[in-house]
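Form 7-S
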Amino acid sequence: MVNVLIIGATQGTGRELAAAYLRDGANVVVTGREAERAETVAAELTVEVAETAATVAGHPPAVANGDGPPRQGVITGLALDLSRPETVAAALAPVGRVDRLVLVGMVRDRNTLAGFDITTASQLAVTKVVGYTAVIAALAERLAPNAAVLLFGGGAKDYPYPGSTTLTAVNAAVTGMVRTLSIELAPVRVNAIHPGPIGDSPFWQSRPELADTLAQFRSKTLTGELGRMADIVDACRFLLENRLANGIDLPVDGGHP
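Output:
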């Protein structure tokens, strides 16, 4: 049984990736800043995945409520706050062997020099650089020899915009982390994915006032398309499951001139 841990999986792509592994029969742990939220998402995914499986198999919905064959995988929720890296090791104490580790969690920061907010910039830097590394350090002895680690960066690494200075720098730091961690953790594989804007993510869907901004991002891609969460999940699965994928920083953004 594959054990998957996804840090920051209570919404968006992290949640969709958790659902994909649960459908495959993996044991999945999802984390969020608050235990209640993480546990709620785990319960929701348990029902959603079971109902989908029941529908595909042609069973009535009762199968999703425990009246059919037992599910192969189990999903649980766990509280973990990447912005407080000193608490990470204790938060991960209940976690056993890990075969796939994904670090998705982040905080958003659009911070121009004219109104530079040191607090939010520091929180972003700590969350992704120190927090991600703290998770991997805490779990290093629990990573299976054939495990894979996936870090989330972002398109701002290569395509900055006004207000992205901290985000661009932090996502570029993810590239450095991949280089060092893939050597230090070998034979465990370490990769990073750098998505562009994801059109159907909750962040963009809940902000109709940003529709013009999203349209501008779309117009700058060579494909004229924005990514979907399903596209990013597919790319994640490649980096996590292909045994020769190692030390890779993969942009998934439709391409740019």
